[in-house]
Each structure stands twice: as C-alpha cells, then as structure tokens.
Write a structure and sequence with these properties.
Elements lengths: L5 E4 L3 E6 L15 H12 L9 E2 L8 E7 L2 H12 L4 E9 L5 E11 L4 E5 L7 E13 L2 E8 L6 H8 L24 E9 L6 E5 L17 H15 L2
Parallel strand pairs: 4-10
Antiparallel strand pairs: 1-2, 2-4, 3-4, 5-9, 5-10, 6-7, 6-8, 8-9, 10-11
C-alpha cells in the first residue's frame, strides 16, 4: 500500500484514503471490497492468527475517493456510529465540476431515491417521499470551463452532492450518470473527493482531524496553502454554528 493510503491509525481507528473505483463493502463477483482488502492487509502486517475485526461506520460511493473511517474495536464502532447520528462529524468534499459555478451558498433541495434508475431525483419544493437535503458550497478556483468547489453536506442523503450539483447545471466531472459529458480515469472515478473529516475520538474524546491528499487526476493539483487542517476545521466550526445548532 502507498504511504499516503493510511491517513491515521491507532488501536481503535483506521482512516484511509479510499481510491476511486473500489466498493467499500459487499463486492460482487470477482470484485474486491476495500473492507476485505484492509482486513487481509492488517492480518499480514500484524501477523494476527485469527480474524481481524474492522467495522464500516460510514461509506463513500464507489467512484468517489477520499477519507474513510473504520473502527478496529466494537466499542469504537458503536460510539462512532453515535457520533454520526448526533452530527458530531464534520466532512468536507472537493468536487471538480463542469461549468463556472461562482460564489458560495446554501442549497436546499428535496431528494427521492429512484430504484429503477439508481439515481437520486431532485425537487426544489417539498414532495411526497422526498427528503430535505442541505448542502453548503464555496467555489475555490475556476480554470477554463471547470470549477473546484468545496462542499459541506449538512444532511447525508444518498448521492446528495452528485445529484444536487447536476440539478444546478454543474455535474461532477466524470459523473456520466448525472449528466457529465465524458468519463475520466478509465471510467473508475468521478472528480469528487472526501478531503477532510473530523470527529471526537470514540474512546479518548480528543478531536481527530484528517486531511486526505487530492488524487493526481484532478485538474487542480496545487491548491491554495490555506486549504489545510486549521482552515477546514475552523470552517466546519463556523458552518456548524450557522446550520447545525
């Protein structure tokens, strides 16, 4: 495994930089899941005689890359799950989108999962069966006809970021399911990356803050130096005060 693959690890937690194109859990046919890959890796690395316990506490879509947290103990898994429910976890994503999306705003929409198309349908008014979604965005850079956007999902609906950006007319680059013009990285990836996650440690209670390096296939490899742990954690605290309390 590459050096920057494991972003944080202790006796209770494992945070990795998930590669795009890999399913987190429940792989089909000959596909390998990230969960099973990590279990095999830890078993060999630590020379464990028995099975390795590793719990999935949240997920990223298969074509999405970035910071993903696993629990190495049952108590940690239980407490992390509770932290997600209590909205104690902060997550930021970077998306490279088609078109010039300017400024910053809070997007309120209503999402309904369509099983037939395997897509989230977006409505701008309340609709039966649709759940409210809230997404904060802030454009960081624009180059030619693409924008690099920082995203903060206040709610956690399935395909929320992908569907909402597409409905605004700015699909994530490579996300042909939601209207992007072409595939990227041999069709394995869309340019949506979970760049930052912060949460209270499930046992120690100290804050854990993790930054996941941006994949090289993005068009914006050299980001402003302010896009670091200090900047993103402050941004999370500010947004939490505005929208979550």
């Amino acid at each position: 495994m590459k050096e920057d693959f494991i972003l944080f690890e202790d006796k209770s937690l494992l945070v990795v930089n998930k590669p795009a194109g890999m399913v987190v859990q429940g792989a089909k046919d000959l596909e390998v899941s990230l969960l099973n890959l990590l279990k095999d890796y830890l078993k060999k690395r630590d020379n464990k005689p028995g099975n390795v316990f590793l719990a999935v506490v949240h997920r990223l879509d298969k074509p999405v890359s970035g910071a993903l947290v696993f629990a190495k103990r049952t108590k940690a898994a239980r407490r992390l799950t509770e932290s997600f429910k209590q909205k104690e976890v902060g997550k930021f994503y970077l998306a490279e989108v088609e078109g010039i999306l300017k400024g910053q705003n809070l997007i309120r929409a209503y999402l309904k999962w369509d099983q037939k198309s395997h897509k989230a349908l977006v409505f701008w008014e309340p609709k039966e069966g649709a759940k409210e979604s809230l997404t904060y965005y802030e454009t960081l850079q624009v180059v030619k006809n693409r924008s690099l956007v920082l995203l903060f999902p206040i709610t956690g609906r399935k395909h929320q970021l992908r569907a909402v950006l597409s409905s605004l007319g700015f699909p994530v680059v490579g996300d042909v399911r939601y209207g992007a013009k072409r595939l990227v990285n041999q069709g394995k990836a869309i340019l949506l990356h979970a760049c930052f996650i912060c949460f209270p440690h499930p046992l120690e209670k100290e804050p854990v803050e993790v930054l996941a390096p941006l994949p090289q296939y993005f068009s914006f490899p050299n980001l402003d130096k302010t896009l670091n742990l200090e900047f993103l954690n402050k941004k999370f605290q500010d947004l939490k005060k505005l929208y979550q309390e």
